[in-house]
């Protein structure tokens, strides 16, 4: 379906739908600094062909959604959370199944505990606990050294207005976060090129989310209070949130189920594991 510009609070968010309205709705939520493009079209159509109404959308500052000056996001992390339900509202959807990667998984957890009447289920992909864990829960492993180095050291300045340089930088970062099963270099360049060409201000897309990343509102309750059906999909080679993060969520959310993704890093599920991911999501979202 053609992309739609939806009014959501004080922003306009770009969304695209697949399948038949009235089928169980799946809202796909990308990670930080990522647009809807990271949910590949073939992935969305496969879910739609299984009888799901699938929605992907651009976060603020990505794709064709409202953008803000670099370093001056006119929104908070809480806005990024409520935007997801705002997209559902704009499409007239009373209940949705949420599927979120990384930051999108954190958003899914928050909405699952805040709005269980609106959330039919959550699927958490390569993320970690966004809510308080049990007091006696063991600590979780830190990011791999290569990720700590990426965040902890000054990176060379990238000219985000230079298309080739910007694509090179993001493709390099994707490889750093990826596992042994990941996008091919050609796939990564094609995806990032599409992301770049659709985004109003690419510098803002790669900057502003990190400014508001910790700006969510306090939530009453913890991981054990999530009462919506939960599926955890987690890469066995995730360098940002190593596999024990996924195991902990599956253990601490009542009734949650863990499906490991062999060889996958911290990324949207690559095509090689779709035979695992798609049936798991389709089965998990079978109910309204």
Automatic annotation (TrEMBL):
Pfam families, sorted: Abhydrolase_1
Gene3D superfamilies in alphabetical order: alpha/beta hydrolase
InterPro entries xrefs: AB_hydrolase (IPR050471), AB_hydrolase_1 (IPR000073), AB_hydrolase_fold (IPR029058)
Domain AB hydrolase-1, chain residue ranges per copy: 24-266
PANTHER family per UniProt: AB HYDROLASE-1 DOMAIN-CONTAINING PROTEIN (PTHR43433:SF5), HYDROLASE, ALPHA/BETA FOLD FAMILY PROTEIN (PTHR43433)
Name assigned to this protein: AB hydrolase-1 domain-containing protein
Biological source species: Asanoa iriomotensis
């Amino acid at each position: 379906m053609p992309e739609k510009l939806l009014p959501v609070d004080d922003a306009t968010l770009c969304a695209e739908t697949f399948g038949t309205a009235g089928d169980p709705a799946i809202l796909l939520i990308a990670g930080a600094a990522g647009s809807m493009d990271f949910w590949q079209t073939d992935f969305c159509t496969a879910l739609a062909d299984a009888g799901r109404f699938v929605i992907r959308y651009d976060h603020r500052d990505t794709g064709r959604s409202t953008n803000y000056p670099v370093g001056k996001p006119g929104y908070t992390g809480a806005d990024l959370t409520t935007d997801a339900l705002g997209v559902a509202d704009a499409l007239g959807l009373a209940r949705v199944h949420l599927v979120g990667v990384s930051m999108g998984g954190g958003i899914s957890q928050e909405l699952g505990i805040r709005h269980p009447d609106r959330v039919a289920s959550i699927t958490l992909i390569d993320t970690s606990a966004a809510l308080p864990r049990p007091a006696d829960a063991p600590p979780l492993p830190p990011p791999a050294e290569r990720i700590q180095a990426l965040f902890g050291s000054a990176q060379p300045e990238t000219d985000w207005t230079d298309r080739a340089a910007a694509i090179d930088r993001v493709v390099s970062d994707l490889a750093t976060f990826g596992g042994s099963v990941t996008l091919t270099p050609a796939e990564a360049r094609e995806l990032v090129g599409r992301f770049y060409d659709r985004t109003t201000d690419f510098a803002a897309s790669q900057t502003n989310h990190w400014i508001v990343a910790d700006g969510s509102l306090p939530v009453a309750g913890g991981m054990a209070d999530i009462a919506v059906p939960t599926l955890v999909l987690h890469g066995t080679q995730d360098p940002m949130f190593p596999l024990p993060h996924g195991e902990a969520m599956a253990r601490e959310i009542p009734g949650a189920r863990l499906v490991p993704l062999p060889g996958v890093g911290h990324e949207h599920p690559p095509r090689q594991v779709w035979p695992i991911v798609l049936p798991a999501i389709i089965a998990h979202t079978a109910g309204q």
